[in-house]
Amino acid sequence: MAEQEPERAADGTSRGAPESDFESDLEDEAERRRRRAQFLNELAEARELRDRVKPRRARAARMRQQMRMRTFRW
Protein backbone atom coordinates (compact mmCIF):
# COMPACT_ATOMS: atom_id res chain seq x y z
CA MET A 1 0.00 0.00 0.00
CA ALA A 2 1.34 3.49 -0.89
CA GLU A 3 2.06 6.11 1.77
CA GLN A 4 -0.75 8.57 2.33
CA GLU A 5 -0.07 12.27 2.43
CA PRO A 6 -1.24 14.13 5.54
CA GLU A 7 -4.67 15.70 5.21
CA ARG A 8 -4.64 19.29 4.08
CA ALA A 9 -6.70 22.08 5.57
CA ALA A 10 -8.57 24.55 3.37
CA ASP A 11 -5.61 26.98 3.40
CA GLY A 12 -3.23 24.32 2.09
CA THR A 13 -1.40 23.64 5.34
CA SER A 14 -1.24 20.19 6.81
CA ARG A 15 -3.54 19.56 9.74
CA GLY A 16 -1.02 17.61 11.76
CA ALA A 17 1.65 20.33 11.74
CA PRO A 18 4.50 19.61 14.13
CA GLU A 19 5.04 21.89 17.12
CA SER A 20 8.21 23.33 15.59
CA ASP A 21 6.18 24.92 12.78
CA PHE A 22 3.85 26.47 15.33
CA GLU A 23 6.78 27.80 17.35
CA SER A 24 8.47 29.22 14.26
CA ASP A 25 5.20 30.95 13.31
CA LEU A 26 5.07 32.52 16.76
CA GLU A 27 8.68 33.66 16.43
CA ASP A 28 7.97 35.09 12.98
CA GLU A 29 4.97 36.96 14.38
CA ALA A 30 7.01 38.27 17.30
CA GLU A 31 9.79 39.39 14.95
CA ARG A 32 7.27 41.11 12.67
CA ARG A 33 5.74 42.94 15.63
CA ARG A 34 9.17 43.98 16.90
CA ARG A 35 10.13 45.37 13.48
CA ARG A 36 6.78 47.16 13.20
CA ALA A 37 7.17 48.75 16.65
CA GLN A 38 10.68 49.90 15.75
CA PHE A 39 9.43 51.38 12.47
CA LEU A 40 6.58 53.24 14.20
CA ASN A 41 8.99 54.64 16.81
CA GLU A 42 11.34 55.88 14.10
CA LEU A 43 8.41 57.39 12.19
CA ALA A 44 7.25 59.28 15.28
CA GLU A 45 10.79 60.57 15.87
CA ALA A 46 11.02 61.74 12.27
CA ARG A 47 7.72 63.60 12.58
CA GLU A 48 8.84 65.27 15.80
CA LEU A 49 12.10 66.32 14.17
CA ARG A 50 10.27 67.72 11.14
CA ASP A 51 7.93 69.65 13.45
CA ARG A 52 10.92 71.19 15.27
CA VAL A 53 12.71 72.05 12.05
CA LYS A 54 9.65 73.49 10.28
CA PRO A 55 7.43 75.04 12.96
CA ARG A 56 5.28 76.94 10.44
CA ARG A 57 4.41 73.74 8.62
CA ALA A 58 3.67 71.99 11.94
CA ARG A 59 1.39 74.84 13.03
CA ALA A 60 -0.50 74.74 9.73
CA ALA A 61 -0.93 70.97 10.09
CA ARG A 62 -2.29 71.42 13.62
CA MET A 63 -4.74 74.03 12.37
CA ARG A 64 -5.93 71.73 9.58
CA GLN A 65 -6.39 68.89 12.08
CA GLN A 66 -8.38 71.15 14.41
CA MET A 67 -10.61 72.22 11.52
CA ARG A 68 -11.19 68.58 10.58
CA MET A 69 -12.16 67.75 14.14
CA ARG A 70 -14.54 70.74 14.36
CA THR A 71 -16.33 69.81 11.14
CA PHE A 72 -16.51 66.08 11.89
CA ARG A 73 -20.08 64.81 12.18
CA TRP A 74 -21.25 61.69 13.97
Range of strand content: under 5%
Q: What is the quaternary state of this protein?
A: single chain
Mean pLDDT: 81
Task: Give the count of helical stretches.
Answer: 2
Computed over alpha carbons, the radius of gyration is 24 Å
> What is the H-and-E element order?
HH
Structural class: mainly alpha
Number of strands: 0
In one word, what is the shape? elongated
Q: Which regions are unreliable across 5 or more consecutive residues at pLDDT < 50?
A: none
Features:
74 residues, mainly alpha, 0% strand
Task: Give your account of this protein's structure.
Helices cover 70% and strands 0% of the residues. Helix 1 crosses helix 2 (55-71). It contains two helices and no strands. The protein is elongated and about 55 Å long.
